[in-house]
Amino acid sequence: MRLLSSVAMGRTPITKENFMRSSIRGIVIGAGTMGTNLARLMFRNGMTVTVLDINPDVLAQCHQALQSESNDQQVRFVNDWAEVGECEVVVESVTEDLTLKQRVLKEAEHYVDDATLILTNTSGLPIDELAEVLVRPERFLGAHFFNPADLIPAVEVIPGRLTSANCVEQTIDLLRQLGKRPAVLKQSVPGFVANRIQHALMRECLALLEQGVVGAEALDEIVRYSIGIRLAINGPLRQRDLNGLDTHLNISRYLYRDLDNRATPSSLLEELVAQGHLGRKSGRGFHEWPDDNGETYDRQERALLEGLLALMTDEHN
User: Fold this and answer.
1) From 51, 60, 255, 282, which residue has the greatest number of CB atoms within 10 Å?
2) Quick check: 66 and 41 in contact, CB under 8 A?
3) 317 is known to lie in a ligand binding site
4) Is 194 annotated as a binding residue?
5) Coil, strand, or helix at residue 97?
6) 71 has binding-site annotation
7) Which CATH architecture best describes the domain 16-184?
8) Does residue 6 surpass a pLDDT of 70?
């Protein structure tokens, strides 16, 4: 038996007008780092939010992270669907595991109204495979936020094969009211767009490290203060237009054959993980991460992101 009626009694349609005059209710499933920032994004933009997680410790950490800037009317923290109540949208944000996500999505569909949007914040799992367990896949799609989710503007919107046009439109409206820049994909491919590009870039970075062409510190400097800045302003395709497509074609004719194109993970990456050098979480990865600088780095990174976004002109809005 559903917790909520199958008739949308009291449900608020997700439109710009309703965002302005009433509160849209959202559920975030998963109280980890991404779920915490999703909840923060929602209540800062006028939504009421319920955070659901079966792990009491994780839920408590989320509560602690948000309590200084929210109140009980804006955000609730629960560990059971019986405590959830009505909502207009569910955002699933649990661990990136297909079986787990399917189980969570199936449970969510059982408890929410038939008209409720169900979004998955997956980084690249196939939307149609996730939708296989759903009775009403037409109201389900992917909404890939980037961390910190309350700050990074872009969200990849990935419809499944059975997702309705109305579901896509409502999701776009919701994201825009949350201050996001939704980008709709024409089809779902593994990794979507951002992670495919990110991994292609990282594959070449790892190859250059393995070949001894450059060190980690210098490589980060080159990317940050050359292509990184220009990509933030223009994106890759506009940047190619500015440089000239004939120039890009001429370079690609001699360069592509020398680029890394392996279909397996980097041996350097495999070795680092095998040694327990996992990055910040272990204190060492490509760089050293002292125990006492984690929160300081987070604050500095956030300030830089906010400054960069503030510099974007109206032309790019």
Assistant:
1) 51
2) no
3) no
4) no
5) coil
6) no
7) 3-Layer(aba) Sandwich (3.40)
8) no
